[in-house]
């Protein structure tokens, strides 16, 4: 039996393909949520002149989730993202600054 027949015929291959298809759907939902966060953050900034820290934290963890999906579906990681593991936290994100950024 050839290596191709062994890999395509294995249950692991089909299970990973199923996870990849499901995570592709999760990617699309994540993308829409990120767009919504961006729009809400812009609206918040229009009225308050600063970023909403809760939206920034959610956007950061949502971005980390998208990165986890990307790593799994491309084969860079064997660790399946949420709901198979904990939702990513905002630990690595930079704090939201209250002051406007300096112009370069």
UniProtKB/TrEMBL annotation:
Entry-linked Pfam families: DUF4389
Transmembrane residue ranges: 17-40
Keywords: Membrane, Transmembrane, Transmembrane helix
InterPro entries: DUF4389
Domain of life of the source: Bacteria
Protein's UniProt name: DUF4389 domain-containing protein
Organism (species): Halopseudomonas laoshanensis
Lineage of producing organism: Bacteria, Pseudomonadati, Pseudomonadota, Gammaproteobacteria, Pseudomonadales
């Amino acid at each position: 039996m050839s290596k191709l027949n062994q890999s395509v015929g294995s249950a692991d291959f089909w299970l990973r393909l199923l996870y990849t298809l499901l995570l592709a759907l999760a990617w699309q939902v994540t993308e829409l949520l990120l767009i919504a966060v961006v729009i809400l953050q812009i609206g918040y900034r229009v009225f308050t002149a600063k970023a909403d820290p809760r939206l920034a934290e959610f956007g950061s963890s949502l971005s980390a989730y998208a990165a986890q999906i990307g790593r799994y579906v491309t084969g860079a990681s064997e660790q399946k993202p949420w709901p198979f593991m904990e939702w990513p936290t905002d630990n690595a994100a930079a704090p939201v600054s209250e002051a406007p950024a300096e112009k370069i």
